Amino acid sequence: MISQWQLRAAFAARLSEMYGREVPAYTTLVDVSREVNEGVLRARGADAERLGSIGRVTSERHGAIRVGTPGELRQVARIFGALGMRPVGFYDLREAAASAVPVVSTAFRPVDGEELARNPFRVFTSLLTPADPRFFDAGLRSRLETFLAGRELFPPELLALADRAEAERELPDAEAERFLQLAVGAFELSTEPIDKAWYETLERVSAVAADIGGVRSTHINHLTPRVLDIDELYRRMTERGIEMIDTIQGPPAWKGPDVLLRQTSFRALAEPRSLRLADGSVTRGALRVRFGEVEARGIALTREGRALYDRLLGLVDRRASRQPDADRGELARAVWEENLPGTERELAARGLGYFTYHVVPGRARDGSRPPGSVGELVEQGWVRAEPLVYEDFLPRSAAGIFQSNLSGEGSRDNEREGAAYDTEWLSGAMGREVLDPFDLYEQQRNESLAAVARQLGTDTPLVRPVT
Fold first, then answer.
1. Using CA atoms, how far apart are residues 310 and 360, in angstroms rounded to an integer?
2. Helix axis angle, 24-44 to 4-22, nearest 10°
3. Is Flavoprotein a UniProt keyword of this protein (predicted)?
4. Which pLDDT belongs to residue 217?
5. Residue 263 burial (CB count, 10 A)
6. How far is CA 208 from the centre of its chain?
7. Of 238, 294, 301, 381, which is most buried with the most CB atoms under 10 A?
8. Is 348 inside any structural domain?
9. Would the pLDDT of 363 be above 90?
């Protein structure tokens, strides 16, 4: 029998192999990521594995896919449910992007700490929003919804196997192999000719809309390895002649703790595709829709920490607008150094970052009584704090990656009111609860504090870190 986590690991590995065949520059990205990680490990030793073992970091991937309807999203949720992955977080890229990106998104991932350690594969999944009149007028919406209703992305056999794997949390060897074949095949780039006129109609609205609703299939849009030094990777990829997007999205490089998520990518490549013309003939063309992303993950921030992060982004924007010739990275670095704690301990003490807590073996042998607060326990050496890796995404960064790889700005009528989409709507559309990532981090932290209290024999619950 093949367990869910083994299915997840095998799916991630096969998807990576398939994507490497389709997009050779991705293989280069993986190779360079591995070289950089090995270099960081040699230079920093155990400290390099502070946010995950080198084995986890090397095998770690997140994918990205795009679907067109709530029905397609429900089917995707069944496939990822088979792999022990649940929808976490709601991301509205319509509001985060300056250009036309008419999608809302969630990320499917494991949620249990042990499952994340085994294989933390994630898939950032975006859903087209045809009901938003800022992008689609009534006529185009009707045509788009009719087109989407007439396609089948996932074969019934795949969905039946997915339901069985989710219910039983495993599959027999033969069924597991069939599931993997069908699942990977569902995300391969189709060779079916694309209706050129229809694709271009949607592309005038948004290249993302065309990639979702202009074809009769879906595909893996990008696959992302994790790297320990994203600035060094950016430099090495550029040296190899691979065109990278202009910036690294997310927090700046600075001397303090790495937090949240930094991302960059090589630019979307012109890939040969078959295009069907109005007279029915087929010609060869090229479309730019897929790219190679890479990420560096830091410490998960609490709600208070995330609010501070968002305020700092706004401060950087204001300073950049006043100093248009200044280097934005330098401005951001200065803002970070002025406002963020420079150490993990201070980040924890101010309640800005998520940590788990673990009793230090042998500390209780001197017969003294442990203090009652987490800060004192850490300060006096009773307990060590281990940072929780940020497992999720940033809407502004995701939108920045999308925008940097678009063929054009698209069109958006800001005079019209946008359609309302939120976490509750997405949960209902999917038939599954979209989990709050903050709740998941808090659960891991609180479980560790409860374990510390039991081991130290304290009568009352430990006081959590406060802001």
1. 35
2. 120
3. no
4. 93
5. 23
6. 17
7. 294
8. no
9. no
| Inside any domain, residue 359 | yes
Interhelix angle 303-322/328-339, rounded to 10 degrees, is 140
Written in H, E and C, the secondary structure of 301-320 is ECHHHHHHHHHHHHHHHHHH
The two tokens of residue 233 are 């990777």
Q: Which amino acid is at 341?
A: P
| Residue numbers of the domain that contains 84 | 2-299+392-434
Same-domain check for residues 175 and 86? yes
pLDDT of res. 286? 87
Most distant CA pair in the chain, distance: 88
Q: CB within 8 A of 195, min separation 6: which ones?
A: 214, 275, 276
Ramachandran area for residue 419 (φ above 0: left; ψ -120 to 50: alpha; else beta)? beta
Let me know whether 178 and 198 are in one domain.
yes
334 plus 262 within the same structural domain: no
Whether residue 345 is contained in a domain is answered as no
The answer on 156 and 64 residing in a single domain is: yes
CA distance 157 to 419: 35
Question: What domain count does the chain have?
Answer: 3
Check whether residue 76 and residue 26 sit in a common domain. yes
**Cα distance between residue 401 and residue 308, in whole Å:** 22
Q: pLDDT tens-digit profile of 169-190?
A: 999 999 999 999 999 999 999 9
Q: CB neighbours (10 Å) of residue 201?
A: 17
Is residue 250 domain-resident? Answer: yes
Rg value, the chain, Cα: 23
Task: Please tell me the distance from the alpha carbon of residue 376 to that of residue 384, in angstroms, as a whole number.
Answer: 11
With b for 16 or more beta-carbon neighbours within 10 A and e for fewer, the 236-255 pattern comes to bbeeeebebbeebbbbbebe
Query: First vs last Cα of the chain: how many Å apart?
Result: 47
Angle at 208 between CA 203 and CA 212, to 5 degrees: 95
Tokens representing 314? 């706004």
Residue 27 sits in a domain whose CATH number is: 3.10.180.80
Tokens for 116?
A: 């994340």
Q: Note whether 451 and 356 are within 8 A (CB).
A: no
